Every structure is written in structure tokens, then in C-alpha cells.
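This part of the workshop introduces the protein records we will be handling. As an example, a complete record with its sequence and its C-alpha cells follows.
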Amino acid sequence: MAVIQVMTGPKRGEHHSLEGDVTFIGRSPDNNIVIDDSAVSRSHVRITRKGKKYFIRDLNSKNGTFVNGERIEPNKDVEIDIGASIGISKKVIVSLVDSYEQEDLGEEELEVLDAVSLPEEMEQEGKVLVQDRPMTHKKNMELISKVAAILEQSLNLNQTLESILQSILDLLIRIDRGFFILVDKQTGKISNIISIFSKQREHKVGRFSRSIVGRVIKEKKPVIMLDTLSEDEHDVSESMQLMNIRSVMCVPLMSRSRLRGVLYFDSIQRPHGFRKEDLSLITALSGPAAIAIENALLSDRKEES
């Protein structure tokens, strides 16, 4: 049985088991999960269980429903995976989790990130392997909650994005560098770069792999390389080799089906800066971040007019 964990909004910290085959979420008291927020429609979404699969349908809500940052089409079932970030409008974020992974999170727990130890590299049969690090579901949810709290603060856009990058680097400490790379929607060219570097790195090089960033901008799909030395030669550019980039992850920032930029991380000289599973976590964070970027740009345009 899956559980809906409420990450932001008036019900923050609550969890609701999806006991029946159909669950309705909305502002009206006759819903299975009631979220009393003006941005939430009276009957906002329906979640349906079919065997071991879950599907979500936006019930023609006023402010829309977003799955991992992408607005879904109204009145159409969309399959959602465990771990998916669901925006009930742009204000309330919930997550679909396994019941055995769900834990009661108090307000203090939601605000504080525990330190996470990362794996030691082992050699086995001549290959470098990385042990599974103890990154619990709870810690992932705490990171999402912390990012949501950052987005609610009255910071300027650059400060907001720097805080998000720092929160991610605090958790995934094998990552050396993080970038928000914003794209002008008219020209398609890079308009702003916000970066942050791990305190553990002595040489803080501000260059990133433009080939990877360009690929994600063009295809609007994430790219992850756990070890560039094991990738095909045509996928690893000469500049990546010169910068000693050993692992890289890049995720598109999508809002209203429009590209706002990319979220980029890499590690220098060390492979396995993250796990494949971390891609889902970063993708879940990219949606709210893209919405924040869009809102900030809209606000700037209103002030200029």
C-alpha cells in the first residue's frame, strides 16, 4: 500500500494511506484527502490503483497538477512511480511513497537535514565498486521539504538557487560542483549561471561541460554518467577530459512544458559522485525550482512594466 506524504502547504508533515482503489484529493471536505488551501480546487485530483501501479488524473482543476515538475493534461490518467513529486497546484507538494518507507516527520525533523555518510570505494575483481550508502527515504524527503521551505522564503532568485544547491551538496557530499544554468526562452541562449562548490575542493573551477548542458537543453531529457571513463568515447567531450570530470548529472528545469534551464552537478577526478537513484531525487527537486524561476521572471517583468 502506498502513502501520500504532504511536503508543503497547510497539511505539511501529514501522511495518508491509499487504502482504496480510488483516492480523491481536494479542498472540499468530501475528498479522501482534504487540503484546505485556496490554490487547491474543490475536487483537484484522483489517484487510482490498478494492481501494483498508480495513476493520477487532474480533474480539470483551476491551477493544474504537476508530476515531477511537468504539468499533466486534465482528465487523462498518468502513471506515477513511487517517489514521484506531485504538485497539487503550484503551492502544495506531496510525494507518493511506499508504506514501509513512510515515517512520521515532526516539524523539527522537516527543517533539519541529518548528515549523511557516503560509501567507501572498494576494489573487487579489479573493478571499483561503490557500496550502497545509507541514504534513507526519510532523508530524501527531508531534503525535498528543506528545498520547499527555501522556496517559501523571501529571497531573491540567485539566493534561492544558491541555497538549493548548497542543500543538495550537503547531502551528496561526493559531488564537487553544482550549477543552475538558466536559459532565455526567446533566444534559447544561457542567460544566467548560479554555481556553488564543495568546501572539500581546493581548486574551484567554474567551467562546466557545455556539451552535456547543450544536449540536455536540446533533448529536454536528463543525462547521468557515473564514470566518464566507462562511457563511449563519443559521449565524453575533450573538454570533459581536460577538466577531469569523472561523473556528471544534468536535469532539465521544466515549467508549463517550457525549458527554463538545467540543474547540473559533477565530480572532479572521483567517479560515482552519486547513484542512479539520485537522478529521481534531483528530478523531483527540479520541478519546484523551475516554477520558482518562472514566478521570479514573471515578477521581474511586472515590475519593469
User: Anything to note?
Assistant: Residues 278-304 form the longest helix (27 residues). DSSP finds six helices and 18 strands in the chain. Helices lie at 107-111, 137-152, 157-171, 210-219, 238-242, 278-304. Confidence is low (pLDDT under 50) at residues 100-135.
